[in-house]
Write a structure and sequence with these properties.
Blueprint: E1 5-13, E2 17-20, H1 21-28, H2 32-39, E3 43-46, H3 53-68, E4 73-79, H4 90-97, E5 105-109, H5 115-129, E6 134-143, E7 156-166, E8 171-181, E9 187-188, E10 197-198, H6 200-220, E11 231-234, H7 239-252, H8 259-266, H9 273-276, H10 283-294, E12 302-309, E13 313-321, H11 331-339, E14 342-343, H12 346-354, E15 363-365, E16 374-380, E17 383-388
Parallel strand pairs: 2-14, 4-5, 4-6, 11-12
Antiparallel strand pairs: 1-7, 1-8, 2-3, 6-7, 8-13, 9-10, 12-13, 15-16, 16-17
Bound molecules: 3-hydroxy-3-methylglutaryl-coenzyme A.
């Protein structure tokens, strides 16, 4: 049997500020039930003026480096769809902020929310070539839609860092994978836009088609039968989407839709996403963190993961939870990352949403707002300046 490879450590970071959906509902006159029940969201993370994908990614990865050191990390893959540069990988800034060794390859990867899963699978391939190496996978995104649009309630921001290696302490990633790609315009962001464009209903339909497509491919390759999975972790643009997806999968498989069974399969995967909002690439791995942090002992049980990225590419695969995993979780730190956020009122959120650096090549400082470990100090001569706090 080949050496198991998978997620050895998993850490996440989110933003300085949080906007409760109650504040959004009060501003736009929406019945709060639509947010709390209809889409399943309580609040969303809002980046400070001096936070971005780099500061969140570095904050997520710093505890992983503190625990495991840098000597085995020869690759960093930074997955994002909120890229800050068309040429330079955001991962190179993180490499510098964390003091990783120069003998390292660093690259950025994109396919909407699916990017982190591509990064994880590519990392497994690299580790398979040399079992002594570890790959640092970072998934970091700011989800931004137009103000006053239906998408506004499904924003958020977070980063996940995963150390991928042989004999993982948390989750062994299994073969096969069920794959699905379809050219659809459900959600996209042209280079000249900060906010994504989306066809809401089309995006939900495209996601459901992808669930069906990945499962069909997975089943054809003799993956685990549906009933073997201890839980299902879905990409969660809003947490109700996971429920829509799982119902669709059960219907597709001709299995009776028992609401209690659905709640048991998904209920522990949504705790972090419901208060953080959509974090694009990081979202499905925040779901995994929530499950591992909350579930009764999952040792030896396969968990189904469904990663969906608009446009669209999706993958369904199993991760088997490893004996002793509970001793390696970061439950207290995860709760603290959420609890430490400061509520911002609607006016403050709107100002942050509309803020951007002038593109004139001048010297522009960012106001000191974050209390996190890293900050974007400003932009000067078109260069972003980062610092550790
Ligand atoms: P909307 O038009 O504002 O909402 O759009 P709605 O009218 O469809 O209502 C939402 C739900 O709330 C409905 O439930 C209503 O019945 C219910 P459903 O029929 O869906 O079960 N509702 C209520 N429930 C209780 N009490 C009430 C009440 N009122 C209504 N009073 C939408 C919602 C999600 C479409 C919008 O926010 C949007 O466009 N968001 C962005 C797109 C998105 O998240 N799509 C998800 C799939 S695509 C994806 O996951 C990829 C993505 O992450 C990007 C990437 O890959 O990079 C987005």
């Amino acid at each position: 049997m080949s050496v198991p490879i998978g997620i050895h450590d998993l850490s996440f970071a989110t933003t300085e500020f949080v906007l409760p959906h109650a504040a959004l509902a009060e501003y736009n006159g929406t019945d709060i039930g639509k947010y709390h029940v209809g889409i399943g969201q309580e609040s969303m993370s809002v980046p400070a003026a001096d936070e971005d994908i780099v500061t969140m990614g570095a904050a997520a990865a710093a505890p992983v480096i503190a625990r495991h050191g840098t000597s085995r990390i020869r690759t960093v893959v930074f997955a994002t769809e909120s890229s800050i540069d068309q040429a330079k990988s955001a991962g190179v800034y993180v490499h510098s902020l964390l003091g990783l060794q120069p003998a390292c390859r660093v690259v950025e990867l994109k396919q909407a929310c699916y990017g982190a899963t591509a990064a994880l699978q590519f990392a497994i391939g690299l580790v398979r070539r040399d079992l002594a190496q570890q790959v640092l996978v970072i998934a970091s995104d700011v989800s931004k839609y137009e103000l006053d649009s239906p998408g506004e309630a499904t924003q958020g921001a977070a980063a996940v860092a995963m150390l991928v290696g042989a004999d993982p302490a948390l989750v062994r990633i299994e073969e096969p994978s069920g794959l699905f790609t379809a050219d659809v315009m459900d959600f996209w962001r042209p280079n000249y836009r900060e906010a994504a464009l989306v066809d809401g209903q089309e995006s939900i339909n495209a996601y459901l088609q992808a669930v069906e497509g990945t499962w069909k491919d997975y089943a054809e390759q003799d993956g685990y039968p549906l009933e073997e999975f201890a839980a299902f972790v879905y990409h969660q643009p809003f947490t109700k989407m996971a429920y829509k997806a799982h119902r669709h999968l059960l219907d597709f498989c001709g299995t009776a839709t028992d609401e209690d069974a659905i709640a048991r399969a998904l209920g522990q995967t949504t705790a972090y996403n419901t208060v953080i909002g959509n974090s694009y690439t990081a979202s499905v791995y925040l779901g995994l963190a929530a499950l591992l942090d909350q579930a009764d002992d999952l040792t030896g049980r396969p968990v189904g993961l469904l990663s969906y990225g608009s446009g669209s590419v999706a993958e369904f695969f199993a991760g088997t939870v490893v004996a002793g995993y509970r001793g390696h979780l970061r439950t207290a730190a995860n709760h603290e990352a959420i609890a430490r956020r400061t509520p911002v009122d609607y006016v403050g959120y709107r100002a942050l949403h509309e803020r951007s650096f002038p593109a004139d090549g001048g010297d522009h400082r960012a106001p000191a707002q974050t209390t996190g470990p890293f900050r974007l100090a400003g932009i000067s001569g078109h260069k972003r300046l980062y610092e550790a706090r």
